[in-house]
Amino acid sequence: MLTLFFSPGTCALATHIALEEVGADYTLSRIDFGKDQQNAPEFLKLNPKGRVPALVTDAGVLTETPALLAWVAQTWPEAGLAPLHDPFAFARVQAVNSYLCSTVHVAHAHGRRGYRWADDPAAHEAMREKLPASMSACFQIIEDSMLEGPWMFGDTYTIADPYLFTIARWLDMDGVDMAGFPKVAAHFEAMQERPAVAAALKGQGL
Ligand SMILES: N[C@@H](CCC(=O)N[C@@H](CS)C(=O)NCC(=O)O)C(=O)O
Questions:
Q1: Which residues contact ligand 1 via a Cβ below 6 A?
Q2: What CATH number does the domain containing 140 carry?
Q3: pLDDT at residue number 196
Q4: CB of 27 within 8 A of CB of 73?
Q5: Mutation pick for ligand 1 pocket among 5, 6, 7, 11 (CB with most ligand atoms within 8 Å)
Q6: Segments forming the whole domain that contains residue 94
Q7: pLDDT classification of 1: cutoffs 50, 70, 90
Q8: Do 115 and 157 lie in a common domain?
């Protein structure tokens, strides 16, 4: 049995969608950021980083969204969520997911989590001010050179798609108009047509 620890609308949504796509049997456990439950001792035992997602599997706990997404794709190969037998194609999927994780998500975090990088409130404000520009720069690269359309890798839906959708949902709060990125906007619309996406959004109360 799988348990996905999540907080609504966070990057955990990507894994949640992937679990829905493959028809996994899982339960959800909500971590309430408002109550700082991500830093509660019982959760830190599962994930000492104090972050979601964390996925409890029969083999142990997994963290880090690209790892979780690859694990889902490999555990349900019949779902075809990644080109598992083509090392180059699989590396390209991982490159997209690594970019989303280590660059785009981190850029987004500068909006509300500036305390990770600086103590000075003026520095936090400076980071917040930079957010629309830094997220726009990331999405311009996605729009121009990554997103083939309709899915990230053309006609083949992969684990990169729920991850892009999850982060694109943050653009509005980051002060970026998605309409400036027509391919991303079309991808965002297409994702919402998928039953797995609707189920995950509903499951998170979104
Ligand atoms: N690199 C991690 C990032 C996880 C992460 O930062 N999650 C955020 C939610 S999107 C979180 O748990 N934040 C809680 C906090 O910063 O206290 C991943 O991709 O899974």
A1: 10-11, 38, 50-53, 64-65, 101, 105, 113
A2: 1.20.1050.10
A3: 98
A4: no
A5: 11
A6: 87-194
A7: confident
A8: yes
